[in-house]
Specification:
By secondary structure, the protein is of the alpha/beta class. Helices cover 42% and strands 19% of the residues.
């Protein structure tokens, strides 16, 4: 190889190296498979806005709701595994726990880029219900089989109650509603006596004297719910079902690209701003990364699957 040939080869290596380091060289997308305006939307946009200057490209957040989160999730599952399209979701929601035959396997087709917020539902009862504690609510339900109702706004609110009913031996009737807003309205109107809902929704109602929060399905009491006992500490250790939201990428995304996205997003997830945003939605930020984050996600999916089996829960078609 003469000197000109060596020079040309060296220039090609440098150019190739520079090209590899250019990711991302165009805008990225984050797909949310849920409707816009939810309590987490602002936190998604906070994280993506803070990530843009570090990645050097805009990040477009797109809401693609429908079909139990399958429309948006399938879109990402079919996108190229190049790091330019991420999915934001609660992974168990798009697993076989809730979907009978999903067109992908959330564990093998996706990989966590970063966590965002860990939240969990709380059990609330109306102020007309003569139960001021979980134990009193259990006694009330047992003495009135089939006479108490609870609101179902989604599979993720139905499963905890069905598991609670199974463990405690309760006969409480579930009434389905098309979303959390009508379920909350029915609860406020006294059409149902109980509901599982987000702490961020029911804590203000409790403060206003319009609801009574009895327990949460957090693994421990986070700062946002320090005054609310967990089901676990009240004698129901299997009712530990937090919901952690993640940014996911297609498995097979180049390692260097995944590492860059993960480094940026997990750093932002650990920031005070995101911590406050997660606190305001009733939870806490999750900033694990790499293998630890993937195990965290796998363990959470497994817990929800085990809960579904115990409650004889049937996934949606």
């Amino acid at each position: 190889m003469n000197s000109k040939t060596r020079l040309a080869a060296g220039l090609m290596l440098v150019a190739g190296s520079c090209f590899a380091q250019q990711f991302p060289d165009r805008p990225l997308r984050v797909i949310s498979p849920y409707a816009a305006g939810g309590v987490s939307d602002a936190t998604i946009r906070l994280m993506t806005t803070r990530a843009e200057p570090q990645l050097g490209q805009p990040i477009i957040v797109e809401n693609r709701p429908g079909a139990n989160a399958m429309i948006g999730s399938r879109f990402v599952a079919q996108a190229p595994a190049d790091g330019y399209t991420m999915l934001w979701t609660f992974p168990a929601a798009i697993s076989r726990t809730f979907i009978k035959d999903p067109p992908f396997d959330v564990r093998t087709d996706f990989v966590p880029v970063s966590g965002m917020c860990m939240t969990a539902h709380v059990l609330a009862v109306g102020t007309a219900v003569p139960a001021k504690s979980l134990a009193e609510f259990v006694d009330l339900a047992k003495s009135n089989p089939g006479r108490l109702n609870y609101a179902i706004s989604a599979n993720s609110t139905m499963l905890p109650m069905e598991m609670f009913k199974s463990i405690a031996g309760l006969d409480i009737v579930g009434i389905p509603y098309k979303g959390s807003a009508p379920a909350t309205q029915a609860f406020m109107a006294g059409e149902v006596q109980a509901v599982f809902g987000l702490l961020a929704s029911f804590k203000p109602l409790e403060a206003a004297g319009k609801a009574r929060v009895l327990a949460s399905i957090y693994p421990r009491r986070p700062a946002a719910a320090a005054d609310i006992p967990t089901f676990s500490e009240l004698g129901y250790p299997d009712l530990v079902l937090p919901q952690t939201t993640y940014f996911l990428a297609r498995r097979g995304t180049p390692v260097d690209r995944l590492a860059k996205l993960s480094g940026v997003m997990t750093t932002i997830a650990a920031s005070p701003e995101v911590g406050k945003a997660c606190f305001d939605t009733g939870g806490e930020a999750v900033s694990a990364r790499g293998a630890a984050l993937e195990k965290y996600a796998d363990d959470e999916i497994a817990r929800w699957a085990a809960a579904a089996t115990r409650a004889r829960f049937q996934p949606s078609e």
